[in-house]
Design brief:
Blueprint lengths: L7 H44 L4 H43 L5 H36 L5
Helix pairs in contact: 1-2, 2-3
Length: about 140
């Protein structure tokens, strides 16, 4: 089986098309780092609250922390999956040069799915931030 000859101009076009998704992958990895650090803070706060004598306020705070952790966990999964989909888009862009098939529809669907996951994860992060503010209001006498 012979390997198809690829013109340098075509390969250059593919590399140019792949640059934007690669920058997106970098941004998503930074977003994963943010979500990871927030989840670690939530876990630390929850462990601290469980060490303190149980009170009604602590129980409410622990419940809020668990809700926050669920939100962050969901956002983390969505961003990780979106990153994988964008990586697959880059892979398909280069595979499209080798395979004589039109993968434009598949690439488009994968990229749209990745963007939908990112949008939902941002909404989920916003909801987690609202829970964080609620927890701060419980911890600070007089509220915020």
């Amino acid at each position: 089986m012979s390997v198809p000859q690829v013109a340098p101009a075509v390969l250059g076009d593919i590399v140019t098309m792949a640059v934007a998704p690669v920058f997106l992958i970098s941004a998503l990895i930074v977003f994963l780092g943010l979500l990871s650090s927030r989840s670690m803070r939530i876990i630390d706060n929850t462990l601290e609250l469980t060490d303190i004598n149980s009170t009604v306020q602590n129980d409410a705070l622990i419940t809020l922390q668990k809700r926050r952790l669920r939100k962050i966990s969901l956002a983390f999964r969505e961003v990780a999956l979106a990153t994988c989909l964008v990586c697959l888009v880059v892979l398909l862009l280069f595979l499209n040069v080798i395979v004589v098939m039109d993968l434009a529809i598949l690439v488009s669907v994968l990229f749209i799915a990745a963007m939908l996951l990112v949008v939902h994860s941002l909404i989920t992060l916003y909801l987690e931030l609202q829970l964080a503010f609620a927890a701060a209001r419980l911890r600070i006498p007089g509220g915020l």
